[in-house]
Every structure is written in structure tokens, then in C-alpha cells.
Amino acid sequence: MRKRNGMGRLALFIVALFVGGWGCQALTGGLTETEDASPPASEVEATSVVEQEPPQVATDPPAPSPEPTQPATSTPVATATTEPTPTAAEVVEGERFEEAGLAFSYPPSLASNIVVEEVPASDPGQDAPPFLIYPDHRVFHVEGYPLADAFQPPRIVVFPAQAYAEMNEWAAEEMNALAQLLSAQPASFPATEPLPFLPFPGAAQVFHAQEAYAPFQNGTGIRYVTAYAQDVWPITNEGLFYTYQGLSADGETYVSVTLPVRTDALPDEVDVENFDYEAFAANYEEYQRETQTLLTELEPDDFTPSLEVLDGLVASMQAGGGAAD
Fold first, then answer.
1. Rounded to the nearest 5°, which phi and psi values hold at 20?
2. Is residue 232 classed as helix, strand or coil in its secondary structure?
3. Which end of the chain is more exposed for a tag (fewer CB within 10 A), N or C?
4. Is 77 in contact with 184 (CB distance < 8 Å)?
5. pLDDT confidence of 261, banded at 50, 70, 90?
6. HEC string for 239-289
């Protein structure tokens, strides 16, 4: 697995944001302080990721760019690690969706409808921010999701991996990072290194917890719980979400699942009137570490929806070749 130092590739992206004037504010090796607050199954034998040949993206990753110089006042987040747990999720029973190159099952409590959006390609040029460069792809919006007011919309995004990698070097780097991660299967993840995530959110990954390697019907990937932000601010249920990042076995399809979750271990919102921002910011690295540990130690059913239910949806999924068109 390649070394992802600090915020890694996102740090370079953030520097580009400052230089290019794209409007996001984040930091390298943590989040920068600003005064604006951002909310931020019938049982199926699941093949272990270890037994699968890891998918590869044919496009070579770009040569690494020099790491940006850390500001003198920046304090790196303490180096902690979290350990992934291999899962063999039961395929969830319930409704079956099969359309537009994606098939999966979901319980009625999770969605009332799935709406397919055909997104046309966007290529303003390599000087554009990476979140504006992508090929034709499909977004599957989950309507009737139980957490309607979450910051992250519930959806599944399916990209043609080769086309995405060829037109967007950042995406190629991210996909190859995922392929290398699935091949190496590290037993732990440094807390300071963000895990692969597409599409680009235009913000920094604050933490990752509840990591697990898990297959879907024609590929494999990793799931985790995370939140993104553009500034130093408390982590709340509003910005918390489950994500699954996966590649099909033939390397042709990239799948990104983002589904909001909540837990009683976190507040739903920040009491702004009684919030001491300066004291919070001064101890932010410790706060990050403690929150990550707290969420890692929770059980799947301590989240709503349960992580096991969301894992079951992923385990039932087939994307790209062989899925319904």
C-alpha cells in the first residue's frame, strides 16, 4: 500500500484550491481554523476479499507531486491507528432494484424509491478542480431514506473506471490507491491518512472508523464511517455517513455508496450559543483522536441504520457488467 502522508492527495488538492481560488478552505495534516462553521439477508456465502484477485485500474497513477510545506503553526494530528474488520455480510432481503447497470436489494425501511440520474461528462480542463472533471456516469438517489435531514445525500454513484481514470489524474490516483489497499489488506490504518473516496467532496476527510473489507456480487471494496469538513468544527450526526468504495473484479466499474448514519454517541447539532470555539480549536487533534476511538468501539447496531443492514445492501449489489441495463 502506498504511503499517504497526512491528508495525502487531499492536501495537494487543498493547496490547489487556495492557489486557483476554487473557494474551499481545508488544511494539510488536519483541518484549518476558519470562522465559518461547516456542517460539515437470505444468507449468501460471501467470498473473503483475501480470496479474490484485487481489481486493477489500467491507467498508471500520476507521478507523486511534492508535498506542500506545512504552515509553521500547524500541529499534525497524533498518529493513531484503527483496525479493519473483514465482514461476511448477509445479503439483505426486501425490495429488489435492477436498472441502468446496477442491481441491489434493500429493506422497505431503508428506501421508498430509487431514482436514476444520468450525469453527463464534465471536462473543463486539467486546470479545473478535480470534482468538476468526470465522465458520463449514473447516480442512484435513495428516496425515503430514514435520515432525511443529513448533510450527505443518500446515494450510490457508479462510474466507468477506465474513462474516469483517463480524464482525471486525481481519480486515477484514488482508484489505484483503493486497488493497492485491497491487495495489501493492511491490518490497521494510520488515523492521519485518509481512505480512498470518490467522487471528490471538495472538503477534507476528518476521520475514518468502523473500517471493514467486504465484497459485493462482482467486486470488492472497503466500507467505513466518516465525515468531511472545510474547517475545524465538532463532528455531529448531521455530517456522519457510511461509505463503501469498491471496484468490480474486471476493473471496469467504480462504485461509491454514501448513506447517512447517526449514533447516540454524537450530538445531533452544536449548541452554538454556549460553544467555546477557541478552546475547542486548541484541542482539536485530541478531539479528533477521541472521537475516532469512540466511534470505532461502537457496535454495528449502535448506528442508525445499523451498519449490518447497510452491509447487506452492499453485499447484494452487482454493478456494471451483468447488471440490468
1. -85, -10
2. coil
3. C
4. no
5. very high
6. CCEEEEEEEECCCCEEEEEEEECEECCCCCCCCHHHCCHHHHHHCHHHHHH
For residues 305 and 69, the model is more confident at 305
The CB density around residue 204, as the number of other CB atoms within 10 Å, is 26
pLDDT in tens, 193-241: 999 999 998 899 999 999 999 999 999 999 999 999 999 999 999 999 9
The pTM of the full predicted model, rounded to 2 decimals, is 0.75
| Alpha carbon 199 to its chain's center | 8
State the Cα–Cα distance between residues 80 and 189, nearest whole angstrom: 8
Region of poorest pLDDT, from 51-65, 95-109, 117-131:
51-65
The one-letter amino acid code at 286 reads: E
**Angle (nearest 5°) at CA 177 between 296 and 130:** 100
Q: Which helix (H) or strand (E) holds 99?
A: strand 95-99
Residues with Cβ within 8 Å of residue 125, at least 6 apart in sequence: none
Q: Which residues contact 128 (CB under 8 A, 6 or more apart)?
A: none
Beta bridge mates, 155: 141, 258
- Alpha-carbon span 33 to 25, nearest angstrom: 9
